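Propose amino acids for all 231 sites.
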């Protein structure tokens, strides 16, 4: 029989089970909680790290990223309006154009930094998922297949369900990153129409890929129910 199959086999009962007499509990004394295993503590820690990554992602995208993108579009719009005041055929002076161009290039550089920071958060999420998968693999060997796939860690979810479900969170964040990259490439051109820029800013702020599949939408409430000691 394979080692994995041996994990599933029931233990042999003793021929004469002995009933253990329970000591009466003191009045007002609540039964103690079962002690947590290292698997419980590691899963909680890694899920909290996932939440931190998601929170940091929102701070980067919706504060720093949105500020840089909006400032870029505003500077470009102000320059277009200023240029529109000059008579046809008359070129604006250097001091009118140069400060706005410098500001726009600075904001584009800020957006490139935002993309790098978002990539870093997605990489951290990937590492966390890999660590969860390593915990599941170890639990299969040490505690057995049935414990890892059927025994609830705290409430109803077993270890295997935490791991397989958590890995799905990478998809919406990867799609969101791709969207942000596309928006930065769209805004990079100084000739992009205003309506296109305005639509890009709206998509950036909405983060549509995370609206129903991101951390807050799918995981925060679930973890508060399924993981003991979540907050």
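Proposal:
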């Amino acid at each position: 029989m394979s080692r994995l199959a041996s994990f599933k086999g029931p233990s042999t009962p003793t021929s004469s089970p002995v009933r253990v007499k329970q000591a009466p509990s003191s009045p007002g004394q609540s039964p103690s909680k079962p002690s947590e295993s290292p698997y419980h503590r590691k899963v909680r820690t890694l899920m909290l790290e996932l939440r931190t990554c998601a929170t940091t992602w929102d701070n980067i995208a919706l504060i720093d990223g949105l500020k840089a993108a909006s400032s870029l579009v505003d500077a470009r719009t102000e320059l277009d309006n200023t240029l529109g005041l000059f008579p046809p055929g008359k070129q604006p002076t250097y001091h009118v154009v140069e400060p706005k161009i410098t500001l726009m290039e600075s904001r584009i550089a800020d957006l490139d930094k935002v993309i790098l920071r978002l990539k870093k958060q997605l990489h951290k999420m990937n590492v966390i998922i890999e660590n969860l998968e390593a915990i599941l693999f170890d639990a299969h060997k040490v505690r057995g297949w049935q414990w890892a796939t059927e025994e609830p860690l705290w409430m109803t979810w077993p270890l295997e369900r935490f791991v397989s479900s958590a890995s799905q969170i990478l998809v919406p964040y990867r799609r969101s990153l791709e969207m942000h990259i596309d928006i930065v490439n769209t805004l990079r051109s100084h000739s992009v129409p205003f309506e296109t820029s305005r639509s890009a800013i709206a998509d950036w702020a909405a983060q549509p890929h995370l609206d129903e599949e991101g951390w807050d939408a799918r995981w925060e409430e679930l973890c508060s129910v399924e993981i003991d000691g979540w907050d």
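The radius of gyration is 28 Å. The chain is about 70% helix and 0% strand.
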